[in-house]
Amino acid sequence: MTDVSLWNASRDDGFRTSCPVCGNRLIGDSEKGEQVCPTCGYVTVAPADSGPEWKAMDLEEKNKRVRVGSPTTLALHDFGLTTEISRTMRDSHGKYLDPAMRATVEKMRKWQSRTRTINSEERGLSNVLSKISELCEALNLPDNVAETAAQIYRTSAKMKVAKSKSILGMTAATVYLACRKCGVSRTLKEVARAAGMEKGSVARYFRLVLKEVEKEYVPPPSVEKYISKLINKSQIDPRVERLALTLSRKTSDSKISSGKAPAGLAAAYVYLSSVMEGVHLPQREVAESAEVTEVTVRNRCREILDNFVIRQEFVAVK
DNA sequence: CATTCGTGAAGACGAAT
DNA sequence: ATTCGATTTCACGAATG
To answer: Distance in angstroms, CA of A62 to C1' of C16?
Structure first.
């Protein structure tokens, strides 16, 4: 198992203890990636985590070591740098503060810590929200899906559904739900892979969110959507797409599509029409792009052929 | 040889109990 | 929470070209 967790990845390369300019001891958190010299203001340029390297997600195997997490600087709304007001009784020149000033500083300190604790929930929220948009980006999802996902998470947080749940699980689930609500065809499998999670575990979170927050069944994207997706994915002759779509439409309101994985059915249509158009893609290829097995493709094909008589004129006319 | 087709065992999932 | 039925996957071998 490769390193899956970036959440608390240490970034101690470039870590220093003393300021290279004035030699003073640096303060700051090595995990946050920044340190500052209290005297001269020098800030270490710790190697910044430029983000997960999953931008160019390829279709296939490359993403074995997908990691999850965000650059600390973006994930934390305060950039991980908080201001502390110390208890010293001297000002920056070393002079003692007069009692009036001391009282003022004391008040400031109190209020600062109060506002910080008040904001803690808000901070957690913004944290998750940024993870959601990251996941959406990794999946090349349009903005409206990210918006929807954020909306879903907000309400689920409000309803306390997200309480003591895995952040990763919740993000994956909300993103997947958002895909379905927006009619964007991403499979559970794809979302799970991009999030670096088990499919089953994403499914559990998804069901939870669906039941508790959405409360209404959101149907998976239509077979047509899957067909177009397949075609786009593997650069297939547009004629095949048109044929597959008409085929699918002609047979849509039928029992064969109920309870079946839409991706498998879509693959069957694509395969069938590729044969009819004389392109003849191998089952293997179609099945692979649809992320189903050849067996499933075959079974769907058999059902289609069993239930419908496909004549060339029939498809050629419309 | 590559591709297709069919099968049984095993796992996963949803619905019903 | 467990059981049950349908679906999907896996692993194989046979047929086809």
So the answer is: 35
Pick the CATH number of A223-317 from 1.10.472.10, 1.10.3630.10, 3.40.1440.60, 3.30.450.20: 1.10.472.10
Please name the residue whose C-alpha is nearest to the C1' of nucleotide C7. Answer: A260
In strand C, the nucleotides that come within 7 Å of a protein beta carbon are: 6-11
User: Can you give the distance from the CA of residue A49 to the C1' of nucleotide B4 in angstroms?
Assistant: 49
Cβ atoms of A205 and A172 within 8 Å: the answer is: yes
CB atoms within 10 A of CB A209: 24
Average pLDDT, chain A: 71
Which nucleotide is at minimal CA–C1' distance from A297? C8
The CA–C1' separation of A300 and C13, in angstroms, is 22
SS3 A43: strand
Query: What are A79-100's pLDDT values in tens digits?
Result: 445 566 666 667 777 777 777 8
What is the CA A247 to C1' B17 distance in angstroms? 40
Write the CB contacts of A65 (distance below 8 Å, at least 6 apart in sequence).
A2, A3
Extents of the domains making up chain A: 1-67, 120-214, 223-317
CATH number at A120-214: 1.10.472.10
